[in-house]
């Protein structure tokens, strides 16, 4: 099939490369020329295991990228993989979805004009264009916002020459390629049988796999399934963290406790790791969007409010724990791990950034290390501080510097906190630390005998 994917970020790039690998002809459309150039040069614009080889293999043949929306016209369907960030109040920001929907409609209208009156679509057997929302959006967005915007800009009619579907994505950063190619489930909400059939054909190469469920439902349910999934997982981690905080207060070990609890197959042992809590580009904004959406619907989501409150408290607990071991005012402390989880350079809503802020507010000079995310963090602080990446000039707070090697990051420091459980931290070169103190927010596999003091957030 010929597939166009609008938005080539973490999801759009992964999905495009995977569809190309499945045998489809794919074009990525993005407004960011650097991303487009990288893909066309056969390079991955992001750090994601397994992605670079796929782009290298398919770029220039089954995979292309462009800034030109006109290229969607000759494709069987257009999948929207645009950001759906949150407003300051936590509610869903549909700005990028609206802008892209209008651009898409305009491109389809231009093609219609060019095709001497009748819109020629590549979709075999139909003369309508299928728009599939893959971004995470609240119920109603596909049918009440995206559809009407594309239709108006394109001079089209939903159900006639415009078809809609919603196909949420469940991949995780760090394992995105394998999650996409070997998913637990594919969820599709389509507005017509033609749209449903096109999506079945699109996913056919992976549907024969054992263990992949194909769920067909209505569009609003498909939209809500994505939020319910993330809300459930975020709640599980917050519950585990609450139980972990209680375990520590009793001098019990949360990992021993929860490993045993997870043996109950109604609960499962997965997603039971207590510690610094959840970050990333999805859980924080999606839980907030669902809370705001529920309130709009007249429902008070008290449980989800508490889920966020527990999560928000964990970075402060980590810093308090460190203060039990180190006189932190004026201390030099290493923060190990900056990405929101291992095996990705994604730092969006990373707990590490909150820990760094809390430490610096208390006058700590922070030395930060990460195997792949340092550049992104430099850019983040440069943007926040109006140009100064290391911001060592900040007089109110401690400084922030970056070290490329773990050994250099630990040399001469008064203690370290572990924020992201990269495997690189399993065998820490602690000998050169001024004080061999480690406060662990993720329960890594470290040789505690080589440390003067080791403390865990919930154990
Ligand atoms: N990151 C994940 O792990 C993940 C997993 C599942 C679902 N999702 C959802 O998928 C969606 C995309 O997430 P992401 O992490 O890939 O976002 P992202 O920010 O990494 O990428 C979005 C891309 O869209 C491009 N873009 C913005 N406006 C555009 C426009 N008008 N036209 C064309 N391109 C435009 C940006 O340049 C960027 O490359 C979100 O709704 C997210 O919640 C994300
Ligand atoms: O037992 C656990 C598991 C996870 N986390 C934290 O939870 C966050 C999210 O982790 P994970 O779910 O592995 O990563 P994401 O890439 O954010 O993936 C989530 O968000 C995506 C975007 O919506 C969804 O597609 C995925 O299904 C969903 O797992 C990270 O900060 C983890 O450190 C824990 O603290 N303890």
UniProtKB/TrEMBL annotation:
EC identifiers of the protein: 1.1.1.22
Record field: catalytic activity: UDP-alpha-D-glucose + 2 NAD(+) + H2O = UDP-alpha-D-glucuronate + 2 NADH + 3 H(+)
Binding residues for substrate: 226, 271-275, 279, 341
Molecular functions per Gene Ontology: NAD binding; UDP-glucose 6-dehydrogenase activity
Pathway info: Nucleotide-sugar biosynthesis; UDP-alpha-D-glucuronate biosynthesis; UDP-alpha-D-glucuronate from UDP-alpha-D-glucose: step 1/1
UniProt keyword list: NAD, Oxidoreductase
GO biological process: polysaccharide biosynthetic process; UDP-glucuronate biosynthetic process
Keyword Oxidoreductase: yes
Residues annotated for NAD(+) binding in this entry: 30, 84, 136, 285, 348
Signal sequence segment: none
Enzyme class of the recorded protein, top EC level: oxidoreductase
Xref: InterPro entries: 6-PGluconate_DH-like_C_sf, NAD(P)-bd_dom_sf, UDP-Glc/GDP-Man, UDP-Glc/GDP-Man_DH_C, UDP-Glc/GDP-Man_DH_C_sf, UDP-Glc/GDP-Man_DH_dimer, UDP-Glc/GDP-Man_DH_N, UDPglc_DH_bac
Protein family (similarity comment): Belongs to the UDP-glucose/GDP-mannose dehydrogenase family.
Name of the protein this chain belongs to: UDP-glucose 6-dehydrogenase
Organism: Halovivax asiaticus JCM 14624
Source taxonomy: Archaea, Methanobacteriati, Methanobacteriota, Stenosarchaea group, Halobacteria
């Amino acid at each position: 099939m010929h597939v166009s994917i609008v938005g080539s970020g973490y999801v759009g790039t992964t999905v495009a490369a995977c569809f190309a690998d499945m045998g489809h002809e794919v074009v990525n459309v993005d407004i960011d020329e650097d991303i487009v150039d990288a893909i066309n040069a056969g390079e991955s614009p992001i750090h994601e295991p397994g992605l670079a080889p796929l782009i290298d293999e398919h770029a220039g043949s089954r995979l292309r990228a462009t800034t030109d929306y006109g290229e969607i016209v000759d494709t069987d369907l257009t999948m929207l993989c645009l950001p759906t960030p949150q407003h300051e109040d936590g509610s869903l920001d549909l700005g990028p979805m609206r802008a892209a929907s209008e651009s898409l409609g305009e491109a389809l209208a231009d093609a219609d004009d060019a095709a001497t009156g009748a819109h020629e679509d590549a979709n075999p057997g139909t003369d309508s264009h299928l728009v599939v929302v893959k971004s995470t959006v609240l119920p109603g967005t596909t049918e009440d916002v995206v559809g009407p915007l594309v239709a108006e800009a394109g001079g089209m009619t939903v159900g006639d020459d415009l078809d809609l579907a919603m196909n949420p994505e469940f991949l995780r950063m760090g394992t995105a390629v394998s999650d996409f190619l070997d998913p637990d489930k594919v969820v599709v909400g389509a507005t017509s049988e033609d749209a449903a059939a096109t999506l079945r054909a699109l996913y056919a190469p992976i549907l024969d796999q054992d263990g992949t469920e194909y769920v067909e439902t209505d569009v609003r349910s498909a939209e809500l399934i994505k939020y319910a999934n993330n809300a459930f997982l975020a709640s599980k981690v917050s519950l585990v963290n609450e139980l972990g905080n209680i375990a520590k207060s009793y001098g019990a070990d949360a990992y021993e406790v929860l490993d045993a609890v997870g043996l109950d197959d109604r609960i499962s042992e997965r997603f039971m790791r207590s510690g610094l809590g959840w970050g990333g580009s999805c859980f924080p904004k999606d839980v907030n969007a669902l809370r705001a959406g529920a309130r709009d619907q007249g429902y008070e989501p008290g449980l989800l409010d508490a889920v966020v409150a527990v999560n928000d408290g964990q970075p402060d607990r980590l810093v308090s724990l460190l203060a039990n071991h180190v006189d932190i005012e004026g201390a030099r402390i290493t923060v190990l791990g900056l990405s929101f989880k291992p095996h990705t350079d994604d730092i969006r809503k990373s707990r590490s950034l909150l820990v760094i802020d809390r430490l610096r507010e208390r006058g700590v000079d922070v030395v930060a290390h990460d195997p792949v995310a340092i550049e992104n963090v430099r850019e983040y602080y440069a943007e926040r501080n109006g140009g100064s990446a290391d911001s060592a000039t900040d007089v109110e707070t401690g400084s922030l510097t970056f070290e490329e090697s773990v050994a250099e990051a630990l040399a001469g420091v008064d203690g370290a906190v572990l924020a992201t459980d990269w495997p690189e931290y399993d065998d820490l070169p602690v000998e050169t630390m001024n004080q061999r103190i480690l406060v662990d927010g993720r329960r890594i596999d470290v040789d505690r005998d080589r440390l003067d003091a080791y403390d865990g957030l919930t154990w």
